[in-house]
Specification:
mainly alpha, single chain, about 0% strand
């Protein structure tokens, strides 16, 4: 049984909406000066809320819903944890908006680490008592995801001693610390968290897989995540090409070949899953999967030093890569998961508008960012009305999210009974709750 707490996931989506609105303000700031906006402070608050307010909170809800029994999910500790997380997220958000990154915000993040540690401890303890076999691939992937989630905080914790002992807030060490956190969040916690939920879905539908091959894939991907951090070290110390070769040839290559190793199995799994999936879920899963492949290709091709330097110096490429992972892989998958487990209606076209607006706008955003980055690389400058275009595309994201949150009020999302929901969704509803 897979269950989702509607109230909690609605809170996570509202956080995501704020992230999208902030992103829109940041884009508009290039068109017209906003006197109230400190760009650096808003930018820091933007990515912080994206990671903790949206992805972390959504993962929190989906993981306990997918892996724990209803009785375990109803425990007071998880309710307290969720709301403490949310309160802290709001406090940190306000701190970053007003003061930017400071000792106060770092201490708040460290407190968030304690909450996260308690969540991981409680989850693993309840997982052992839930009756779910520890030998399931989804459980193994979940443990790897939680490992990366915890070690990513080393990057935040190390900021305090770096600033105290080296007085180097913008130094290479500061850069490496922040990138340590982002790298193991985006490439470790996000990716393995998604994989654990995906394979939990497969197990839920009783689809058989080649467990041996996927365990090899797990360890190859795990190794690749560790090794590809050397790319950040190369960017910090660009004179040492050995770091670039280790990251791209070893790390990126291992991960890319790991995907090739299971490519046929993935196609077979999608074929077996298709009868169980809502049509919109299938589309979103494909977007997420193709984006993951693009991510791996990008990690492989930058082994060539000039390309690695371009990826670092052309900001459009950097932003496009982070958006690729955050929006096209993680966010799209999480929304697809939410659709699959009956949080949205996907029958009437009007109920799908928000999802289409969101999906099309993020794909357009990626295209424009990569295109403009390529034009800068070729020395052709900015194409006409670039900032206006990127603003309009970004504006579509919060509009899409608003439509997703507040679409069709005749949903279980707003308290409709299970029987009524099934009547409304007779054609596409998923019978495996």
């Amino acid at each position: 049984m897979i269950k989702i707490n509607s109230t909690w996931i609605r809170i996570a989506l509202l956080n995501f909406l704020i992230v999208a609105v902030l992103g829109t303000f940041l884009r508009f700031a290039f068109i017209k000066e906003l006197f109230f906006l400190d760009y650096l402070h808003f930018q820091t608050a933007h990515w912080h809320l994206a990671i903790f307010g949206w992805v972390y909170q959504a993962m929190f809800v989906f993981i306990i819903g997918a892996f724990l029994t209803p009785e375990q999910q109803a425990q007071k500790k998880y309710r307290v944890l969720f709301w403490m997380n949310q309160i802290l997220i709001i406090i940190v958000f306000i701190t970053l908006i007003t003061k930017g990154t400071s000792f106060v915000s770092v201490y708040e993040d460290i407190f968030f680490l304690f909450l996260t540690g308690f969540f991981v401890f409680s989850l693993l303890k309840d997982l052992r008592a839930s009756g779910v076999s520890k030998n399931l691939l989804s459980v193994e992937l979940l443990k790897v995801a939680l490992f990366f989630l915890l070690i990513s905080f080393i990057g935040i914790i190390s900021i305090l001693p770096i600033e105290y002992f080296f007085s180097a807030k913008r130094s290479v060490l500061y850069y490496l610390s922040s990138q340590f956190f982002l790298h193991f969040q985006y490439n470790g916690w996000f990716i393995f968290g998604i994989l654990s939920l995906f394979f939990r879905m497969i197990e839920n539908y009783g689809i058989e897989i080649n467990t041996h091959k996927f365990r090899l894939f797990k360890w190859m991907t795990f190794s690749a995540v560790l090794i590809t951090y050397f790319l950040n070290i190369y960017w910090g110390y660009p004179g040492y090409l050995v770091f670039l070769w280790i990251a791209s040839v070893a790390g990126g290559g291992i991960q890319f070949f790991a995907l090739l190793f299971i490519r046929k199995d993935i196609s077979k799994i999608f074929g077996q899953l298709k009868p169980h999936l809502n049509p919109i879920t299938i589309i979103l899963f494909k977007i997420s999967y193709i984006s993951f492949i693009i991510k791996l290709i990008l990690q492989v091709i930058i082994f060539y030093p000039p390309l690695a330097n371009i990826a670092l110096t052309i900001r459009n490429y950097t932003i496009a890569y982070f958006h690729l992972v955050f929006l096209c892989i993680a966010s799209v998958f999480l929304i697809a998961w939410k659709i699959q487990y009956k949080q949205f209606s996907v029958i009437e076209k009007k109920s799908n508008i928000g999802i289409y607006v969101f999906s099309i706008s993020l794909l357009l955003l990626e295209f424009v960012l990569f295109l403009q980055g390529t034009l800068l690389w070729m020395g052709m400058g900015f194409f006409p009305f670039y900032y206006e275009l990127i603003f309009l595309i970004t504006l579509a994201l919060p509009i899409g999210i608003i439509l997703i949150i507040f679409q069709n009020k005749n949903l279980s999302y707003f308290g409709v009974s299970k029987d009524n929901l099934i009547k409304q969704n007779t054609k596409h509803v998923n019978q495996h709750l």
